[in-house]
Amino acid sequence: MSSSYFENMPRIVGHRGACGHAPENTIASFKAAADLGCKSIEIDGMVTADNEAVVCHDTSVNRCTDGMGAVLLKTLSEIQALDAGSKFDPKFQGEKIPTLEETLRVVHDLGMSLNLEIKPASGWQVETTTRIIEVLKEHRPADMKLMFSSFNIEALEVAQKLAPEIERGYLCEVPPSDWERRLKAVGAASLHCHHSFATKEIIEAVQAAGFKFLVYTVNDPKDAKRLLDWNIDGIITDFPDRMFDLA
Ligand code: G3P
Ligand code: MG
Hints:
By secondary structure, the protein is an alpha/beta fold. It has 8 helices and 9 strands. It has a single domain (12-59, 98-246), classed as Phosphatidylinositol (PI) phosphodiesterase (TIM Barrel). It has an 8-stranded parallel β-barrel, surrounded by 7 helices.
């Protein structure tokens, strides 16, 4: 079986699981995405003080948990003592920031592929990417389709060096004018930008050069319809259920 993320890639990808429906980047969010019918989700990966890879978007735990402080300054046991569910909705009390290892197992069991965004604290890109790749080499199920994406060029460079077989996506808000040079420099297979900057012209140009084009975070079906009509390869959304009928 091919491990290419892009082979038969679904056009609708859940963001941080399905974070419109459940607390972002938690097991509940991954299960919500699968329950809604997602075949792929995006998540964010970083490391703790004791070099464990965890799934979390912000460099601090402040916004999403009942704790305070930087993920990078807490041990895994300190991180996992936090409640990552109640701030979204009290009914999710007890959800944890998951490890990448657990996430790989759950997402695979749910039959989904993974867009793993490498989200290093600034300055910790080499360490973060290296550890994430170590965990993948040990725990990624052999048949699991997975790609990396990152806003951080150094993270993409390290990923290219240590795990060249895993496809890479170049994340940006606005596609840079020299996008082709930048994508080639890190051997990226795709460009992912904020949906408001995805024009028909840039999508066509990027695809004509042989790259996939994905957009985040599209939550209005009107935007999704326009982008799908322009033949966008993938839409990353907090509300996949709003999009399936369009894809
Ligand atoms: O991968 C797309 C999207 O997740 C990038 O932005 O801030 O949600 O990680 P952010
Ligand atoms: Mg992300």
